[in-house]
Amino acid sequence: MFVLLSVALCFLGYLFCLKLIYNRFWRLWPSLRNNILCASSRVEGVKFLPTRDPPELSCKTYENEARVLLVTAHPDDECMFFAPAVIKLGESNAAVYLLCLSSGNYYNQGAQRKDELLGSCAALGIPAHRVTLIDNKELQDDPNTEWSVGLTASLILKHITTHSIHLVLTFDEGGVSGHANHIAIYKALSHLAFVGRLPEDCQVFFLHTISILRKYLSIFELPISWFLPSSFCCILAPNEYKKAKEAMLRHRSQLLWFRRLYILFSRYMFVNTFRAVPVEKKDLKFY
Ligand SMILES: [Zn+2]
Asked: Which of 38, 44, 155, 160 could form a disulfide with 165 if both were Cys (CB 3.0 to 4.6 A apart)?
């Protein structure tokens, strides 16, 4: 009886902790959002922006709407991994663009998956005219294929300059799931940042890859994400989670039983944390 009571008290305490973090996040969200959409934050390289105690804004924000580009490898990456950031930034009036670098044709379902992608983006709040899906024979969905860093980087850079993008979100070196195509995008953007090819007012953020244990703790993982350092954190409220779930359900060709479990148990359906990418100045010379 005593053990049961102790467990119940611990659980209630944990729920109370979650509630406190939620409340704190809602209060901080306007400044967190403005900080990462702040035009001058990249001039001297990326500044580390603390998640929990952001400084008062002193830098100028964009006169027009901020433009955010999400770069993914396959249809469904946008909702499986990035739904919290896409939904929160979209609700904050940022113009969110999606560049998906393959049609996900590994099982010859590319045509169907293109349509599903548009449905998912609509659920997440990304209009169809801001969605670009690349179908290049050198960038096919295949975990055993190394995508060309040069080709991937040039496609991404063209998209950034065409749409005057201020903020790019993509995978980190772990690719969340370790998929080679995800990691290829990380390499391409790291290359662009390292050689100073990105525009002056464009920042890049990489989505943290977390351990498999943390990955499937659902919302109960939140305190760990909250207290570990990150440059940017997004947390979904229950009503916003419904949008993420709806986006996942639009990918009907992928709705196997384990995908349904993923919707319930993946922490990426509720929380995103990002690392800012240090950017070299453009006057670097290479010989
Ligand atoms: Zn993928």
From this structure: 160
